[in-house]
Design brief:
Blueprint: E1 2-8, H1 24-27, H2 31-39, E2 41-45, H3 56-63, H4 68-71, H5 75-82, E3 92-101, E4 112-114, H6 122-136, E5 141-147, E6 150-155, H7 182-195, H8 199-206, E7 214-221, H9 229-233, E8 237-240, H10 244-252, E9 256-258, H11 271-283, E10 289-294, H12 296-303, H13 306-331, E11 335-340, E12 357-363, H14 376-381, E13 385-386, H15 392-396
Parallel strand pairs: 1-10, 1-11, 2-13, 8-9, 8-10
Antiparallel strand pairs: 2-12, 3-4, 3-6, 3-7, 5-6, 11-12
Helix pairs in contact: 5-10, 6-7, 11-13, 12-13
């Protein structure tokens, strides 16, 4: 038996008047997911404990079978694992986003335009990070390039500081959300001075792209410790994702990390490449389990784009799930699929919520015959609810 998790980050949403009272998942054309929902089990699962902030870090730990209440030590340390940061026990790790701020008004009165700097490429971001290092790196502060707009700051012998997530405050003035610690505020202000008129940003602006003109720090945490996934589950696993968070979780869990060319965490990612990487991992490389993470629905939710969120969901269905199903059916290898979001990212608020999310659990060896549509409303109507998301993987592996 082979096993898959296929996760559409932030795919769940709320009914929208612009879609006639439907959610993007209801409105989207998803024939493959609908077929699997009819032949399998559909319900709701709570991936984020009530006492924790909703985020991909907490939720994806749960989907992988790790109780966030016991295993979570912060988001950024998980991402740091992915880029090879060697962490000491007293290091504190921060996410360092490259964001777009407005250019008028004093620094504290500026507004967050874009938390992702127009989904800046890693290549462009690395150029900017290299120049920031020359000015900002100190014995206690070290910067590491991540992926796209997502980067890492290590504070040696630091303290965990609570800082605002930039994607929660798009279109708002930054004054209430700036760090209270003077060193971090100074680094932010200095980064704006360095970046706003940087030649690369001037070139981006001339091309109609958003400047990556400021660092934004958040997501502090300490060195994580995760039980080895194979020891925990008895399954060998591969992670296919474009984002450092998921790669870091997999690295910490001792899973294989598969890097897919052209996978960038955006709307125009290499969907087919992710599907083929998962197929190869289980059918050729001997893995028992593959986890395919697609970031695009979440990014489109943060951007508030209904049209593009629908496109991302449809691409997940036709360009990831359908090829995986077709390849596994053709192989005659029995398999089980778990399809779900990690959390909702509603267009209404453009950030994460902790509401339960709809899931499909499909087994190729015992199919029901039912007409169904995969969405939040239909999943709730089944009456099936899993209150502890970290236990769902045991059901995928037929342990519970």
């Amino acid at each position: 038996m082979k096993y898959f998790v296929i996760l559409g980050d932030g795919m769940a949403d709320e009914p929208l008047a612009q879609l006639g009272g439907q959610t993007p998942l209801q409105y989207a054309q998803t024939p493959c997911m609908d077929e699997l929902a009819g032949k399998g089990e559909m319900g709701l699962v709570k991936t984020v404990p009530e006492s924790m902030k909703p985020g991909s870090d907490v939720a994806n730990l749960a989907v992988l079978g790790y109780n966030p209440l016991e295993n979570y030590s912060g988001r950024s340390p998980l991402e740091a694992l992915s880029v090879g940061v060697q962490m000491a026990a007293d290091d504190v790790i921060f996410r360092a986003n490259l964001v777009t701020l407005t250019e008028d008004a004093p620094f504290a009165e500026k507004t967050i335009v874009d938390h992702s700097s127009g989904e800046i490429s890693t290549e462009d971001a690395d150029i900017l990070l290299n120049d920031l290092r020359k000015e900002l790196t100190a014995p206690e502060f070290q910067f590491y390039t991540g992926t796209s707009y997502r980067h890492i700051l290590v504070w040696k012998k630091g303290k965990v500081l609570e800082m605002a997530q930039p994607h929660d405050h798009l279109g708002q003035k930054i004054a209430p959300y700036l760090p209270q610690h003077p060193a971090f505020l100074q680094m932010m202000e200095k980064s704006y001075e360095i970046l706003n008129n940087h030649p690369l940003n001037l070139q981006r602006a001339a091309q109609g792209k958003n400047k990556a003109n400021c660092l934004w720090f958040w997501g502090a945490g300490t060195k994580p410790s995760l039980e080895n996934f194979q020891k925990k589950t008895g399954k060998t696993g591969a992670m296919i994702s474009a984002v450092d968070l998921l790669k870091g979780i997999a690295t910490g869990a001792g899973m294989q990390v598969v890097n897919v060319p052209g996978a960038n965490g955006g709307l125009h990612t290499n969907y087919e490449g992710k599907a083929q990487a998962a197929i190869q991992a289980v059918l050729q490389d001997g893995c028992d389990f593959a986890y395919i993470h697609v970031e695009a629905p979440d990014e489109m939710g943060h951007q508030g784009s209904i049209e593009n969120k629908i496109k991302a969901i449809e691409a997940l269905d036709s360009r990831v799930i359908a090829p995986v199903k077709a390849a596994m059916d053709a192989s005659l290898e029995p398999y089980r699929l778990l399809i779900l979001p990690d959390h909702p990212t509603p267009i209404r608020c453009r950030t994460h919520t902790g509401d339960p999310v709809p899931y499909i659990l499909y087994d190729s060896t015992c199919q029901r015959k039912k007409v169904a549509q995969y969405n939040e409303k239909e999943a709730e109507a089944t009456g099936i609810f899993q209150p502890e998301g970290y236990r769902l993987i045991d059901r995928l592996f037929m342990k519970g």
